[in-house]
Every structure is written in structure tokens, then in C-alpha cells.
Description:
Layout: E1 2-8, H1 9-14, H2 19-37, E2 46-54, E3 60-71, H3 78-89, H4 92-96, E4 102-110
Parallel strand pairs: 3-4
Antiparallel strand pairs: 1-2, 2-3
Amino acid sequence: xxxxxxxxxxxxxxxxxxxxxxxxxxxxxxxxxxxxxxxxxxxxxxxxxxxxxxxxxxxxxxxxxxxxxxxxxxxxxxxxxxxxxxxxxxxxxxxxxxxxxxxxxxxxxxx
Length: 111
């Protein structure tokens, strides 16, 4: 079973309660810390969240795929992209997931 959810960044920061929204909200917050420090506007950033269930050995989340479309106020060089991606991967929600959950992030950068 696959669940897909697309979340605009700004509304995601206001939502609470749903697990995909929690993961997305914290991930975006981590990226926002870098963006603020680097004076980058990420307000049009979106994330598509796909969850795939595994059934063996028990029913559980098997894979989470995040397609992160970063729409910034200016072109981002490789160093800034690396900082944003490292911040996303340092998300405490992601770090709290069971090690058997495969988390895949795809980043796309638009200006």
C-alpha cells in the first residue's frame, strides 16, 4: 500500500497531528534554520510524501519517499544545497524512525 501526500511548506508549518505532517514540519523547520542564516526565502517549497507499507515480518511502514521541491529566492550553489540537504537529513523525526524504515529524499531546486 502506498500513501501520497503533497504539502506546501508554509501551511505544513501550521498543521499539527498527522504523522506525515509532523515529519514534514520538522524537516522544513530544520531547513528553515539554514535558510534564515543564509538569507534564503523558501516559502514556495513543497514536499510530496509517499509511504509504503511492508507486511513482513509484521505490518509496518517499510519506506518513506520525500520529493522536496525547493523554490528559493535566488540560485543556490552546491555548498548551500548541501547545507539544506544535511539539515533535512538531520530531522529529529527521521532520526527517531526504526532503522528498518527506508527513507529516501529527492531534492529538486527551482528559482
